[in-house]
Structure formats: structure tokens, C-alpha cells
Write a structure and sequence with these properties.
The protein has 473 residues and is α/β, with parallel strands linked by helices. The protein contains 14 helices and 16 strands. Strands 4-11-10-9-8-5-6-7 form an eight-stranded mixed β-sheet, sandwiched between helices. A four-stranded antiparallel β-sheet has the order 12-13-16-15. A hairpin with a 6-residue loop joins strand 12 (395-398) and strand 13 (405-410). The longest helix is centred in the C-terminal third of the chain and has 25 residues, at 366-390. 41% of the residues are buried. The structure holds pyridoxal-5'-phosphate. Pyridoxal-5'-phosphate binds at residues 122, 187-189, 213, 252, 257, 285, 287, 315, 317, 322, 327.
Length: 473
Amino acid sequence: MELADLHLTLDRRGDFTARVYRGLLAAIQDGRLRPGDRLPPSRALAQSLAVSRGTVLTAYERLTAEGFLRGRTGDGTFVTGSPAPVRRRPPRSAIRPRAEWAAEPRRTNGERAAPSYDFRVGMPDATLFPYDVWRRLVSRELRLGSGDLATYGDPAGRLDLRSAIARYVGIARSVRADEDDVLVTSGAQQALDLVGRVMLRPGDIVAVEDPGYPLARALFASLGARVVGVPVDESGLVVDALPTRARLVYVTPSHQFPLGMAMSLARRRELLAWAGHRDAAVIEDDYDSEFRFSQRPLEPLHSLDTTGRVIYVGTFSKTLLPSLRLGFLVAPPTLRSALQAARQLSDGHSPTASQAALARFMAEGQLARHIRKASRIYGERHALVVDAIERMDDLELVPSTAGLHVCARLRSGDLGSVRALVTTLPRQGVVVDDVGQFCVGSAQAGFVFGYGGIPTGRIAEGMSRFRQALMRA
Ligand SMILES: Cc1ncc(COP(=O)(O)O)c(C=O)c1O
């Protein structure tokens, strides 16, 4: 690394040469300076330390003689040695987070090496993304003169993107919204965070599905809420089991996470009636239902709602890429300014250039085209996985017609046997998820098969390896 700006801490012992020498040696020994790093020219370092150039040269020479540095004529002075991972031991600290933050972050898919037969849940197929189009659109924005790059943007998001999203949800999901109802977020997760922050007081009850999305449950708990898991049946969240004083209910009605069924229309109506009666708000997380394989989708809660209680949350993590960190929410006008203020205090707004690129991407019809193409491919994969599950007598398929994963219950067997199978399957190159990891109070023995991350051609072999392991277990 080129070190234009090296900050050295000098102690007070000895002459300046000895201080500079010790400062550099300490930086090399504790890993701040690494093998291969080029030190600043002696004149520049002398100037920044307010010492003479001769002082720095002498320190460099001493470290060179001792083998810590090496001079290359005409090129500079470098730290020697072979690069090795440096483990700095942090100081012992008495500073602690609040108890809500005691847990480790969940490992994300990207931190694990991709297995050969990758059925991990939650991943879209990164090979389908139209990289050339996206690069063109982003580079167009990252040019001098292409907008106010030196200023902060609107916390609600760029107007062109909000309009594009309002149109998109209106057409694709029959969600009635205009640009003022939309707030652009850094993924669905931030939408949940903003809603939680502006609505919840510590101790407030939030009802979530059980099994359900762990990052939603953990988020509301981190805000000091009492999070209560509510069972789901084949029609979705069991409204009769809702805690009477819940202030907020978080649901995934289009494609229940992780089981995969849709919430029935009757149940949707029941939930809205319940919310009206109890003066509660509902978050509708519509995270992956753009990929639909049959049937007309049911009306979103948002469009059935006549009393402004539903906050609709969407994301581009599945339709595009999760690493873009772009999502949105559609909120009733009563929450609008609070949500915008919370976004401003949290992180200002989403990166302006990505927002502008996405607005144009949508306006050019690229999003719709990409979803059409991806749906066709995911539809084939869905059919292959469903077919393989239906051939396994030990499994009972949970019917689903959308999204990027399907779920199957183990007909006879307990949570322990599912866990054991899921942990040994990687030896066969297969990774699937265990429904149990998404349960709090409920205990459901089953498997979740994601098909976003596995090429279509590998599904048959992956499912066959799964089947053999299941039969042996
Ligand atoms: C239920 C649910 N909601 C939302 C998301 C997407 O989150 P984000 O938009 O923060 O990437 C996921 C991703 O796996 C999910 O499973």
C-alpha cells in the first residue's frame, strides 16, 4: 500500500531519531505497517513530524540494517517480510452493549463458501442480473454535472424513483400509492427498522409469525419491544392467536417465510378486521412474490385495507441483488414525516447514484423484463424441486406458487433428526435449511429448499443426493 499519510505516535524518550525509529518499529510490530507497504519519502515524513530529514533518514537506515525495511533505488523504502494475517489484540474493555445486543449477528449466506448443490434460502441467481445495463446507468450518474452529487438528498428518496416505485406497485401488485406515500430504503430490513422506531415504545408488543423471519423478530426485540410468536396454519397467521394488545403485527402474506403458503383471503380480511378493532398496525412484507408460477395472486393486505393500517414493504434484494441494498415502504400519510425524519437521523438516505440508476432502470422497462426472464427460470426450478419433493414419501410439500424457496415437512421425525441431516448433508455437497431454525415456540420438523442460488441443471442431482441422505437417516 502506498502510504501518503502516515500518522506516527512519537514517545518522549531519547532524541528525535530514536523516537522516530521506535514509532516506526512499533507500527511494523503491531501490524499497522505491513510487509510490502511503501513508507512516505523521508522529506514528507520529516515535514509531517516536524523533524529534520536527516532524522528520518537515520531512522530508516537503522530499520533497514535490522532487516525491517528495504530500500529500492529510485523506488522508495518498503516494509520487508512476507504478508501474513495480522491479529491485533484489542485492549480489554469494560464497555458493554445493552442486553438486547448480546447476540452475535446471524451469518449471512455470502460468508459461507458456495456448496455444489446450493439450496440455501434467500438468494437470487446473481448470474441473471443485467450487469451491463446497470453499469451503464450507474456510470451515467457518477459523472460531473449529473446532479447534485455534493449535496445530501431527500430522506424519502429521489422523486423519480419514488414515482417509478409507486407506478410499479400499482401495476404489479395493485397497491394504490403515489410518490409521496413511498420511502426508499436500504432493503426491507431498514423499512422494518424505521417503522419500529417511529411506532414502538419499549415494552410494546409486536406479533410475528412463528415460524418466521428471524431478522424481523430480532429487529423488533432490539428496539425494546416484546416480540410474541404467533402460530401459522395452512391459511397463514392464526389471527385468533394474536396477543390482544399487539401494537404491530408483522406478516409475509404473499409467501409466508419460511413455509411458503399464501395467507388466504379470508384470513387477510380477518387480520385487517382484528387490527381495526385493536387499533394495531400491520407490516406486510412482500419480499419475493414478484416471482409467480401459477394462479392469480391474492390481493395484498394493503389494497384490502380501508383504514390506513397497513405498511407495505418491498425490496429489490430478490428481483435484483441483495448487495444493492435497495428497498421501499408504502406508508399511510400519518407516518410519513416521522419515517422521513427517522431515515434522516439514521443514515440520511440511500446512495443517490444507485437510486437514479434504479429509477431509469425501471422507466426503461428493464426491471419488468428482468423479472419476466427470471420468473421463467425460477419457475422451472420451482417445478423441479416440487416434483422431487413429491416423490419422497417421507416429505409433505407445503404448497406455494411464488418466491424463491419451497418448504417440505418431515412426516415422521423430530427437529433433532432434521438438524442432524442438515448438518451432515454438506459432506454430500448439498446445503438445505432447517425449518426449526426459524421457529421460536413452535416446533416444526421440515426443510426449506431455496432455488435462487442453484443452477437449474444441478437441481436433479442435488435433490437425489438429498433423498439418499434422507433414506439413510
Ligand atoms: C421475509 C424476508 N423479508 C425481507 C427480506 C429481504 O430483506 P432485505 O430487503 O433487507 O435484503 C428477506 C430476505 O431473505 C426475507 O426473507
